[in-house]
Amino acid sequence: MGYPDQRFDVNLSILFTELPLLERPAAAAAAGFTAVELWWPWIETPTPPQAELDALKKALDDAGTQLVGLNFYAGQLPGPDRGALSVPGEESDRFRANIEVAADFAASVGCTALNALYGNRVEGADPQVQDALALENLVLAARAADRVGAILLVETLNKPESPLYPLVSAPAAIEVVDKVNAATGLGNAKFLLDLYHLSMNGEDLSQVIKAYAARTGHVQIADNPGRGAPGTGTLPLERLLDELKDAGYAGWVGLEYKPGDRPSAEAFDWLPVSARAAR
């Protein structure tokens, strides 16, 4: 057990960001990783030119890296936004325009997990209206994901850093997962269990793992405080990942942490090189 027994992937939207997007897969491969994940890389547009999608596919292929997780369009992220699908008007329209684009790109690179960030509460908008819009859009996203053999992920964020995001507990995200699955009958909506966000919310992580491991489609980690690499804070991440494995979780663990003041390539010294390649 322990870290060498896990299936890790590197989030290229928070690590290796000192490099242009198309150079990051090769940098992750040079550090010993063969699996990566991404937030939607084109924050300005839900529908980038096909040439840009093709260039990213080529960069992933050339590096020998497998994309195992991709966010749908989520607005300005990093930035003030936390998704678009529950935001009435233009942002919801942009999310919808992105659904098939993201699903088709995922299919082209063999990515089988698509993350749909819920979006912030909007001043002046009725929360019930936002939630109804969210369910509508999540149903469309779940069907598109299913079309390409992928799961749809719903993520809990943390209230201190995302005060306007409504899903700031594990049960809140699970409730949305259940609603989507009930509406589609597909069963492909799953929980994205991020140990950093849940710890920032003060949740009992072992209890969350026990309760929801079976409904978890993807895991992400960072230490707390600081959102740095494992070992820079006080979270017992190695033990928690063992608990997830014991509870039956056999999926990917995304490294979604900040490298600190050093180059990203030096932010993996907690993990033996032999344990970095996907198994």
Describe this structure in words.
The chain is α/β, with parallel strands linked by helices and 279 residues long. The protein is built from eight helices and eight strands; from the N terminus they run E-H-E-H-E-H-E-H-E-H-E-H-H-E-H-E. The chain has helices at residues 24-30, 50-63, 90-109, 127-147, 170-184, 195-200, 205-212, 237-246; strands at 8-11, 35-38, 66-71, 113-115, 151-155, 189-194, 216-221, 253-255. Strands 1-2-3-4-5-6-7-8 form an eight-stranded parallel beta barrel, surrounded by four helices. Strand 7, helix 8 and strand 8 form a beta-alpha-beta unit. Helix 1 runs parallel beside helix 2, helix 3 (90-109) packs parallel to helix 4 and helix 4 (127-147) crosses helix 5 (170-184). The two termini are 14 Å apart. The mean pLDDT is 98.
Protein traits:
279 residues; alpha/beta; 8 helices
